[in-house]
Amino acid sequence: MLCASCRLLAARACDHAARPAQSPGPRAPLQWRELHFPGYPELPSCDSLAGRLVRQSVPPGRRATRRRGKMPPATGGGLAESKLRPRRGRCGPQAARAACRDVAAEAVARSPKRPARGSRRFEAAGWWALLALVTLLSFATRFHRLDEPPHICWDETHFGKMGSYYINHTFFFDVHPPLGKMLIGLAGYLSGYDGTFLFQKPGDKYEHHSYIGMRGFCAFLGSWLVPFAYLTVLDLSKSLSAALLTAALLTFDTGCLTLSQYILLDPILMFFIMAAMLSMVKYNSCADRPFSAPWWFWLSLTGVSLAGALGVKFVGLFIILQVGLNTIADLWYLFGDLSLSLVTVGKHLTARVLCLIVLPLALYTATFAVHFMVLSKSGPGDGFFSSAFQARLSGNNLHNASIPEHLAYGSVITVKNLRMAIGYLHSHRHLYPEGIGARQQQVTTYLHKDYNNLWIIKKHNTNSDPLDPSFPVEFVRHGDIIRLEHKECPVKKIWRWEQKETSRNLHSHYHEAPLTRKHYQVTGYGINGTGDSNDFWRIEVVNRKFGNRIKVLRSRIRFIHLVTGCVLGSSGKVLPKWGWEQLEVTCTPYLKETLNSIWNVEDHINPKLPNISLDVLQPSFPEMLLESHMVMIRGNSGLKPKDNEFTSKPWHWPINYQGLRFSGVNDTDFRVYLLGNPVVWWLNLLSITLYLLSGSIIAVAMQRGARLPAEVAELSQVLLRGGGQVLLGWTLHYFPFFLMGRVLYFHHYFPAMLFSSMLTGILWDTLLRLCAWGLASWPLARGIHVAGILSLLLGTAYSFYLFHPLAYGMVGPLAQDPQSPMAGLRWLDSWDF
Amino acid sequence: MWGFLKRPVVVTADINLSLVALTGMGLLSRLWRLTYPRAVVFDEVYYGQYISFYMKRIFFLDDSGPPFGHMVLALGGYLGGFDGNFLWNRIGAEYSGNVPVWSLRLLPALAGALSVPMAYQIVLELHFSHCAAMGAALLMLIENALITQSRLMLLESVLIFFFNLLAVLSYLKFFNCQKHSPFSLSWWFWLTLTGVACSCAVGIKYMGVFTYVLVLGVAAVHAWHLIGDQTLSNVCVFCHLLARAVALLVIPVVLYLLFFYVHLILLFRSGPHDQIMSSAFQASLEGGLARITQGQPLEVAFGSQVTLRNVFGKPVPCWLHSHQDTYPMIYENGRGSSHQQQVTCYPFKDVNNWWIVKDPRRHQLVVSSPPRPVRHGDMVQLVHGLTTRSLNTHDVAAPLSPHSQEVSCYIDYNISMPAQNLWRLEIVNRGSDTDVWKTILSEVRFVHVNTSAVLKLSGAHLPDWGYRQLEIVGEKLSRGYHGSTVWNVEEHRYGASQEQREREWELHSPAQVDVSRNLSFMARFSELQWRMLALRSDDSEHKYSSSPLEWVTLDTNIAYWLHPRTSAQIHLLGNIVIWVSGSLALAIYSLLSLWYLLRRRRNVHDLPQDAWLRWVLAGVLCAGGWAVNYLPFFLMEKTLFLYHYLPALTFQILLLPVVLQHISDHLCRSQLQRTVFSALVVAWYSSACHVSNTLRPLTYGDKSLSPHELKALRWKDSWDILIRKH
C-alpha cells in the first residue's frame, strides 16, 4: 500500500510538470503551485523546465518522432532505468502522458539528490510483486476446492458432452461457434480424459473419469481475468489503488468465482473479452510510437483476442463493436491531424484492417476448419444440416452413397425441408387428437432419420405398382400431378398391435392447422393408397419451366395442393405432447416463396434406375461455413422461453435479483449457487449512478468553460476518458440483451459485470482523490484516500468471507434455518439457497 | 384613447398565394369523392370496431397503440352522429345508412391534405429556397400511397401529420425564434407545440417514440451548444434548459396520461376484452364482473365462500376448480396416481369453482359473528363447496408435470396416505399497515405446510379424463414471484348455512349486491399499459405482409379493396418514381456528407459555414427521420405492411428537394450546367406526375379498367393487381 502511493506521487508530480510542456504559451503561475508536494520538494523545478525548453524548440509536427527517439532515456543511468524499462517499453502512456513520464524520469535521474537507486528498484519490484500477488490470489481462489462437487453441475452436461464429442470425432450441433468447446475437448484430451463419460444430466457422478483437467483449464483462464482487469485499470487510470480495488472486487466476487470453476464457455469467453480489452488499452497507450514493435504486438494481440471471443460465443460481437468504435475514433483523430500525410494515415488504416479485420477473420475461419476436420463422424447433429453437408460425415447414409439421379414414379424418397433445422417430412401411426382438425393420421417434420420419413411417389390417377418390371421407367417432371404415399415401416414384431398395414396418402383439406390457425391441416388419409382428390399435389421446381426432370438433392421443389391451391410447408412450431414434440406441417394458402415451403429430395431408392455417386455434391468450405452459421443463428433465435418457464429478465441482473442453481436442491445435497457477491454488485450499481452523475457535472462544468485547477482537470480526464471507455464496454455488453428474443440467463451478465467492476475501481479512486484534493491539508487528504480505499478493500474481502459457501459449496440446512452457514444472509427473498 | 381615429385603420394582409394554392390542391386531392367506396376498405374493418366500441362506451384493449389514434377516429364518428351499430366483420361489406362515412374519413383526409403545405413550410424553415419548398409540397401532393392512405379511415396520415411534420416544423420554428427572440410569445408557442405534437404522435402509435427521440436528440444537441455559450449568464442558461425540459418532457408525459384518462372515462362498460384484465380492473367497469362483485364483503374471513382466479391468466384466465371425478388410477404412460378427486383450473364460471375457507382448528363452515378475518401467515384449509373435500397435496407426481406434486381433493381410502390439507396463506402484495386477505385486491399464494409446495397453474391441458381443463400442481421449487402461483379472490360471500344441502342451494344462488369498488386512475392506467405492452398476438402471417427490405424499392403493394362487380380497385401503391428517387437522394446525401466530412477534417472547406450548417440540419432531420422510422422495423418481430414505411417516406420526400437544390447551388459550376440541371429536374417531375396520373385509377378506385389495362399497370412482377377472370 505504502509503496503504491509513493509511486503514485511520482506519477502525479511528473504529470503536472509536463502539463505546461504540452501547451506552449504563457502559463498561469497558479498552476505551478500544485507542484509543491511535501515528499519531493525540489523535484520538478529546474530539470523539467529544461526539458520543456528543449521541447518547445521542436516544431509541433515533429514532436512525436523526437519523443520516440528519446524513449530509452539516454541520460538516465543504470539499473533503475532498465528495471523500469519493461513496463514503459511495453505500455508507454498516451501521447500527452508520455511527455510527462519522460520528464519525470529525466527529472528523477538527473536530480542531484536522486532518491537512492535502491528505492527505485524497490518501487519497481513492488510493482511486480503486487501484480504477482493479485495473480496469485486470483489463482488460489479459483483453484481452491476445484474438484468439488465430483458430479456434473448445471451446463457442464452440455459443454462436457461436447468436449467428449471432439475427442470422439462425432459431429454435433450447437448454437455457439466451436472454439470454446474445442479448447475444452483439447484440455480433456491432454489431461487424460478419454471421452467415454456420457454427461447425461446434472448430478451424475464422474467417478473414475478424469474431469479435473477440463475444470482446471476453465479455472486457469478464469483466473487471468483478475490480473487483466488490474492491468487495464492501471493503464486507464494510472493509479495503483484503483487497480487494486478492481482486482479485489473481481477476486472476491462469488459469481465470477463460481462461473470460473466449472466446465463452461463463460470463463473462456470472458478471458478473451478481457484480453481484447487489455491489449486494446495497451495499444492505445502506444499510440505515440506507431509501428513500433510493442504497437504491432498489442494491435495484433487485440485481433487474436477478438477472434477468440467471437469463436467462443456470438456475444463476442459486443467487444468487437467496442474495439471497432475505438478504432474508428482513433482513425478519425489521426485523419484530422494535419501534420500526418495521407500516406501515413493510409498506413495506419491498413495496419488496423490487417490486424483487426483480416487476422481475426482468418483465425475464426481456421477454428471452423479445425472443427470440420476433427468432427468427421456422423452424430446427433446431422439432421440439422443439409443433405449435401451430411454427405461428408462418415457413418451417415449419404456418405459415399450412390443413388439414382432423377426422380421417377415408384421411387421411395425422403423429403427434407430446405430451411435449416426443420427436418424431414414424416408421418406416424398416430391420429390428430379429437378437436384438432380432422381425426386423421398426423403428418409432421422430424429432425432425425427414421423409417417413417419414407414416401413413395405415385401417379395421381393409377394405383398400379410402378415398380412392376413390365412398366417402362417414367420420370417425374416439373408440373406433374402426383400422390405421395407414406411407406409404412417394414412390419417388425416389436409393434404391439398386429394390424393390417395400410399406407396413407399425403392429404390436405379446409381444416385449420393445429397451431397456425390460418393454414390448412395436412394429414395422412386413405387406405392402401386409395384416397380422394384431396391427395393430389402438383410438384414444381422453383424457378424452372415445365417439363424438366427433378434431380435428387439439387432441385428445390414445392408441393402445391391441387384442390385448395395451398403450398406444403412447415411452420417450424413445435407440436404439443400428442404430436411427440415434432414440428407442425401445414398447407399455407399464402403463396409467398419462403424456405419453409421449399423441399428437396434426400434419399432416393429406385431399383430400376442407375445410381450415381454423391461425391460431386460435397460442399466447399465456404459453403459449409455459411451453412453452419445459418443453422447456428436459427438455433439461437429458436431458443424461445416457454410460457411457464421461470426466465431471467435483463433488469434482474445488475441488482443481483436471482441466482442460478448449479448443483443440489435439498439440505442434504452439496449445493452450489451462482450469485454475485451482493456487496460487490450493489457497490457496482451505485458506482454506475455515481459515475453518470459526477461525469455529467464535470462535462457541464467544462462546457460552461469553468477553469478547473490542474489536478482536478487531470482527474476528470481520467474519469471521462478511462471511465468512459469502461462504461461503453458495460453498455455494449448489457443493453443489447434487452432486444434479444431468445431465452436469457443470469450468467449472460458476467462480461458486463467485469466492466462495471473496473468502472467502480476507477470511480472510487478518482472520487476519493477529488475529495482529498478538496481538503487543503495534505496529510489528512492522503489519509482519507488511503482509508477509503482500504475500507473498500476490506469490506469486499469480509463480504467474500461471508458469502464464500455459495461458490465453494455448502451442505446442511437451507438459509432459513438458523443452523445454516448462510443463516441471516438471505437478504433478498428471491435468492434460493 | 381615441388615437386610432387620427390615423387610418390599416390591415396589411400578407398572403402567400402559393401556400393557399397548395392547401387548396391538397384538400381537393384528399377530399374528392371521399365517401367512395361506400364499403369497408382493408384496415377500416379493424379500426371501425374500436370506433363502435367508443360510440357504445364499451371497454376494449388494443395492443397496436395507445388510445389517442382511435379517439381521433372516434371523434369523426361522434361529429357525424354515428351510433356504433355496424358489424365490422369483413372487408368489402357495404356500409349501412347509419354510418357517416364522410365524417369518419374526414379527419385523416384533412391531416393528409394539410401535410402538403406543411412540407412546404418545413423546407422553407430549413432555409432552403421557395422553389425547393414548392417541390417538396408538390411531391407530397402527387404521391399515390399517401393519397390512398389518407382518404380512408386509417391512422397513418394522422400520424404523419403530427409527428413527421407538425413536430418537426414547430421545432424548426422554435429554433429559428431562438436566435432573435428567446422567451417571446411565439418562442413559447412553438416550443409547447413541439411537445404537444410529439405526445400526440406517441399517443397514436408507439412508432412515434422514435421521432420523439430524434427531436429530443436534436434539442439536446442544441441545448448543449447553449450551455457552451459563455455570453449567457448561468441563470439564463438554466431558464432555457428548464423551459425545454418542461415543454419536451413534462408536457408529453402529462398529455400521454391524459389520453388514457379520457380513454378510461369514455369507456366504462364491460366488453369482450374484460377477461384479459385483472379482477380488480373488471370490477371497476360497469356490468360484467362488477355486477357480480358488487356488495361483496371486502375482508375474507374463516367460513367465507370464495372463487379463486389465477393471476397469470395464461393460456386462459381460469378459476380453481374441482369435481366429482378422480384421477385415473394409472396414466397412459404407466405412472400411477393417488386416485383422489381431481383439482383443475377451469376457464368458465361454474358452481364447482366455489371454495370455503376453513379454520383448521374448528369444525364449522360458516362465518362466525363477528367475522374473523384471515391474515397473512394464517393456516387455512380450502374446502370444496359442493363435495366438501379439502384441498390436498402430497408427494405423488402430478399427471402432466412429473417434477411437481399432484394436487387433489382428499378422499380417505384408508391406505397409508394421510390427509395433508393444511395451507399457509401468503399475501404477496400486502401493505405495510394491513395484512388482511381482501377480495379482489389481495394476491395470495398458498404454501403447503407439510411439503412447502406452492399451489400453481402449470398451464398444461389435461387429457380427456380431465375434460381438457388445466392442470394444477404443487410446485416444490418456487423461485421468486410468478403469476402462475398467485391467486386472487374474485367472488366472495360469507357462508351462512350449516347444512350441506342448504349450502349447495346457497352456492347455486347468485351473490348479493351493492357498494361499488373504485380503482385509482394510476392503478388502472398502469395495468392497462402493462397489458398492452405484454399482449402478443401470434398471427404472424398475412397475404399482404412484407419485409422492410421490399419497401425501399416498392417491391410490394397491398390490395385494399375490390369492387364487388367491376374491376375497380384500390391499392396501396406508391409513385415509383418518387420512391426510387427518394432512396437515391438519401444515398447521394450520405455519400456527399461523408465526402464533405472527410475533407473538412483535412481542413478543406468546400461549403461556406452557413450552407454547411443548413445542410447538416436538413440532413439530421430528414435523413435521421427516415432512419429512425425505418431501421427499427428490422428488429421487430410483428407482421409488417407496406404502410409502415409511409412515415419514413415523407422524410425522404422532404430530403429530395434539399439535395436537388444543393446540387444546383454548389455542384453545378456554370450557369449552363445549372440550366441543364433545372431542365432535368422539370423533366423528372413531369415523369413523376405522369406516373401518378397513370396509377390514379388504383389510388381512387373510381374507374374500372379492363384486364388488359390492369396487366399493363403491373410494372413489377411482385405487384399483386387483381384481375377478374370474366
Describe the structure.
- Chain A is an alpha+beta fold and 833 residues long.
- Helices cover 47% and strands 11% of the residues of chain A.
- Chain A is built from 23 helices and 16 strands.
- In chain A, strands 10-9-6-5-2-13 form a six-stranded antiparallel sheet, with no helix packed on it.
- With 726 residues, chain B is α+β, with helices and mostly antiparallel strands.
- Helix content of chain B is 46%, strand content 12%.
- In chain B, the strands form three sheets. In chain B, strands 9-8-5-4-1-12 form a six-stranded antiparallel sheet, with no helix packed on it. In chain B, strands 2, 3, 6, 7, 10 and 11 form a six-stranded antiparallel sheet that branches. A two-stranded antiparallel ribbon of chain B has the order 13-14.
- In chain B, helix 6 runs antiparallel to helix 19, helix 9 packs antiparallel against helix 10 and helix 10 (208-228) runs antiparallel to helix 18.
- Residues 511-516 of chain B have low confidence and may be disordered.
- Classes of the chains: A alpha+beta (833), B alpha+beta (726).
- The A-B interface holds A 332, 335-336, 338, 342, 434-435, 516-518, 577, 588-590, 643-644, 646, 657-658, 665, 700, 703-705, 739, 741, 829-830, 832 and B 224, 227-228, 230, 234, 237, 314-315, 400, 458-459, 464, 468, 477, 479-482, 484, 539, 541-543, 598, 601-603, 635, 637.
Overview in brief:
The complex is a heterodimer of chains A (833) and B (726). Helices cover 47% and strands 11% of the residues of chain A. Chain A has 833 residues and is α+β, with helices and mostly antiparallel strands.
Helix content of chain B: 40-55%
Question: Low-confidence stretches of chain A at least 5 residues in length (pLDDT < 50)?
Answer: 1-115, 492-500
**Count of runs of 4 or more consecutive helical residues of chain A:** 23
What is the beta-strand fraction of chain A? 5-15%
Average pLDDT score of chain A: 78
Average pLDDT figure of chain B: 85
Helix content of chain A: 40-55%
- Class by helix and strand content of chain B? alpha+beta
Tell me the strand percentage band of chain B: 5-15%
Tell me how many strands of chain B there are.
Answer: 14
Radius of gyration of chain A: 34 Å
The total count of strands of chain A amounts to 16
Instruction: Quickly count the domains of chain B.
Output: 4
Organism (chain B): Pongo abelii (Sumatran orangutan)
GO molecular function (chain B): dolichyl-phosphate-mannose-protein mannosyltransferase activity
EC number (chain B): 2.4.1.109
InterPro entries (chain B): ArnT-like_N (IPR003342), MIR_dom_sf (IPR036300), MIR_motif (IPR016093), PMT-like (IPR027005), PMT_4TMC (IPR032421)
